[in-house]
Amino acid sequence: MKLEQAILSTKFKSEAHKAVLNILYSAWWLKTTMSKSLKEYSLTHEQYNVLRILKGKYPEQMCVRDIACRMIEKNSNVPRIIGRLEIKKLVKRTSSLLDKRETVISLTTSGIVLLEAATQSVNQLMDGVVDISNTDAKQLNLILEKIREKES
After folding, report:
1. 14: pLDDT confidence band, cut at 50, 70 and 90?
2. 123 close to 48: Cβ distance less than 8 angstroms
């Protein structure tokens, strides 16, 4: 769908401004679509992100601070997200062996099983809704990274 149709507007300050709005709208649309898929697994987008981060380090444990640094949404309340995942028995929270003041998080077997099922569903969904060639995807990645060059 064209941006103009989605937001019912045809007036943009410039093509660059239109591109920014297009990125914002597309990000919202993808997140909403993905959230619907994750709902089947009783996961939020942020909880799924934490589980994926932990899976990337599995079987190692990670401290909350390191998880927070890797989050897509940097303003996420990681301790609260971990608390919800712990209630669902998808992660385990323990004290670090090196520093008793530090809390470390690890995936449980249930967390791994749920993550694998959710990831399969998300991958299938994304393959269905994001229909672009590898060449176009590579070009898009380069453009998005160029936009974020001044990221601090």
Report:
1. very high
2. no
Please confirm whether the linkage preceding 79 is cis (ω < 30° from 0). Answer: no
Q: Give residue for tokens 């679509």.
A: 33
Q: State the residue for tokens 């990274």.
A: 145
User: What span, in angstroms and rounded, lies between the C-alpha atoms of 131 and 134?
Assistant: 10
List Cβ neighbours of 33 (8 Å cut-off, separation of 6 or more). Answer: 125, 129
In this structure, are residues 66 and 54 in contact, taking their beta carbons and an 8 Å threshold? no
| 48-62 confidence digits (pLDDT tens) | 999 999 999 999 999
The burial of 51, by beta-carbon neighbours within 10 Å (0-12 exposed, 13-18 middle, 19 or more buried), is given as buried
Tell me the domains of the chain and their CATH numbers.
34-121 (1.10.10.10)
At 106 the three-state DSSP class reads strand
Please give the C-alpha separations between residue 118 and each of 39, 58, 125, 148, in angstroms, as whole numbers: 9, 17, 10, 29
Find, among 29, 19, 4, the residue nearest to 146 by Cα: 19
Measure the CA dihedral 118/123/124/128, to 10°. 140
* Statement: the pTM of the whole predicted model exceeds 0.85: yes
